[in-house]
Write a structure and sequence with these properties.
mainly alpha, two-stranded antiparallel ribbon, ELYS_dom, ELYS/MEL-28_NucAsmblyFactor, nucleus
Length: about 325
């Protein structure tokens, strides 16, 4: 069995040190991922000091990873093997470093180490996935990190990275990861970010997701859903998302939240806030209530339909064109 405590056994003579280009890429990825690689998180979680004793860290400077010279690599190895952690954790961290050697064209280094040190398969899978994340290879990372045999590692951090960056490669990656792992979303900001992300995929999907969250969060997340729908509609001129909003299967309580937010709350400042309430009431067949809410409308279009056309339809339903004319009082624009 390979002796992981012996530096030369893990990193044989002639192992290529990290080139300037590789160092720059790793440091750039660290900045992209919010100042912390998943390897940094592993070191911190296992209480392995990740900074050089000879110089304090500043931004990307001072970190032992990526090693900038042979001495840094040996120092990092020493800190890993001398840490008070189980050997399988030490093997996992060293395997990560040898994955970099694979990237440096020594394709056998990592696999040879894993076999000779008898690295557990589940730790091999986790490190593969985290290494891919740190190298911004998001689709490859999910192949490993959603493996059914794994207990999730850093699930909320991973979901955050996929929402912020992974969706640019494939918009369905955050959804796939969430459905496979079910991270708890204890961070309110992450919870809101995921709802917003879902809303961009499908408003109805975001709506049903909110139903799975703690009851005390339902109202604020529902209002976030309304915000996103109206902002999205205004930014890209799409009416589909507003149509989805109007036709959501709301409960009586949610109906009250919907109208309160758009008629009296913060949502009333949106250009189409009152229009949306009127359209919702019309969709539910509440014609008289729609006329009441539409008293303040001033002739603008809603979803490319002039309110005059809506007014005619309501008049036909109520059988009182004169009353509707006097209440809506709108002119074609």
């Amino acid at each position: 069995m390979l002796d992981i405590y012996e530096f030369s056994a893990v990193f044989p003579s002639g192992t290529e040190i990290y080139s300037q280009n590789v160092q720059h890429t790793i440091r750039s990825n660290r900045r992209t991922l919010g100042g912390s690689l998943f390897f940094d998180k592993l070191l911190a979680q296992l209480h392995v000091k990740s900074v050089s004793e000879s110089r304090p860290p500043s931004a990307n400077r001072g970190y032992l990873y990526p090693p900038s010279k042979d001495g840094n690599l040996e120092e990092l190895h020493d800190k890993i093997v001398s840490a008070e952690i189980a050997d399988h954790y030490k093997q996992s961290l060293l395997y990560y470093l040898l994955k970099d050697c694979t990237a440096l064209d020594d394709e056998e280094a990592a696999e040879t180490f894993a076999k000779k040190s008898h690295l557990s398969h589940k730790y091999w899978i986790v490190i593969q996935g985290l290494w891919n994340l740190d190298h911004l290879q998001f689709e490859a990372a999910l192949e490993y990190l959603t493996h059914p045999s794994l207990l999730p590692a850093f699930p909320e951090d991973i979901l955050r990275v996929l929402i912020d960056h992974g969706k640019l490669a494939n918009k369905h990656l955050p959804l796939a990861y969430y459905n496979a792992v079910r991270p708890p979303l204890t961070n309110p900001d992450l919870q809101k970010s995921y709802v917003t992300y879902l809303a961009h995929l499908s408003l109805i999907q975001a709506y049903f997701f909110i139903e799975t969250q703690p009851v005390q969060d339902h109202k604020s997340l529902f209002e976030l859903l309304i915000d996103d729908a109206l902002q999205h509609s205004r930014s890209d001129g799409s009416s589909n998302v507003v149509d989805e909003l109007i036709n959501l299967p709301l409960t009586a309580e949610q109906e009250a939240w919907f109208e309160e937010y758009l008629l009296e709350g913060k949502g009333r400042t949106y250009h189409a806030a009152r229009d949306t309430v009127v359209a919702r009431r019309l969709a539910l067949g509440k014609y008289a209530e729609a006329i009441e809410a539409g008293q303040q409308l001033s002739g603008r279009r809603f979803n490319d339909i002039n309110w005059d056309g809506i007014k005619d339809m309501v008049a036909t339903s109520l059988g009182s064109r004169v009353e509707v004319d006097s209440v809506f009082n709108v002119a074609e624009i």
